[in-house]
Specification:
Helices cover about 30% and strands about 30% of the residues. It is α+β, with helices and mostly antiparallel strands. The longest helix is centred in the first third of the chain and has 19 residues, at about 65-80.
Length: about 240
């Protein structure tokens, strides 16, 4: 049995929500897209990514290829508009298949976490400037949380040239008791992994209640950005 929860919030400092998400048990597709480029740019880019993935996955395209096509679609749309301000979006997507396996794929710094055996693990890797500094040993993960360039992404749909786009993916078995969390950086900017794990560990909460607690924690932490959270459980 699959149980899931989902919600998005504009946050406390933004006027518009450029995040987009989709949750669909029939298609077996969940995704979070965090748009960038300002109102009517980020919103458009994230919506284009969502709609392209729904269309392509629904017609049998692989998840990775669907994300590549979304990149091309956003670039085409941006070129047609001929505006100086580029539009882009992150993407974090989950596909469940009938043999109880999962595939996740991502571009940018929206994250995917796996809850398994009472512990939380980030299974995506941020495409960001601070992640590159962490990989080089220049800063620690704790220092990255307060780095002045922590919001700079190195890969994004609609911004990265299709030839240079790195769509990363991970596959695994989705076993009973596991949870997969997809979120925009509006959550992880304000709530650290330990606090996320503490909420996911609460067996008294439904998936939807966990999502609502996570968004509330992000708002209580400052709510500096749009925040979107999807949680998928196998019971």
């Amino acid at each position: 049995m699959i149980e899931f929860g989902h919600s998005t919030h504009v946050g406390l400092r933004r006027e518009h929500n450029e995040d987009t998400y989709h949750a669909d048990t029939d298609l077996g597709l969940w995704l979070v897209a965090d748009g960038m480029g300002g109102h009517e740019h980020g919103e458009v880019a994230s919506a284009l990514a969502r709609d392209t993935l729904i269309r392509e996955v629904g017609s049998g395209t692989t998840l990775v290829r669907a994300i590549q096509l979304a990149d091309e679609e956003i670039i085409r749309h941006s070129t047609r508009r001929s505006e100086a301000l580029p539009m882009g979006t992150t993407i974090a997507a989950l596909r469940l298949v009938k043999d109880n396996s999962y595939e996740v794929a991502w571009v940018g710094d929206s994250r995917i976490y796996l809850w398994e055996d009472a512990s939380l693990r980030q299974i995506s890797q941020d495409h960001s400037y601070v992640q590159e500094l962490i990989d080089q040993g220049a800063i620690t993960s704790e220092q990255a949380r307060n780095h002045p360039h922590r919001n700079v992404v190195t890969q994004a749909l609609g911004v990265t040239d299709p030839q240079a786009l790195r769509v990363e993916s991970v596959r695994g078995d989705f076993k009973p008791g596991m949870q997969l969390l997809l979120c925009s950086d509006g959550l992880t900017e304000e709530v650290d992994d330990d606090a996320i794990a503490a909420i996911l560990s609460r067996i008294d909460l439904s998936a939807q209640e966990c999502v609502e607690h996570l968004i509330l924690a992000a708002l209580e932490g400052g709510g500096s950005d749009n925040v979107t959270v999807l949680l998928v459980r196998r019971t």
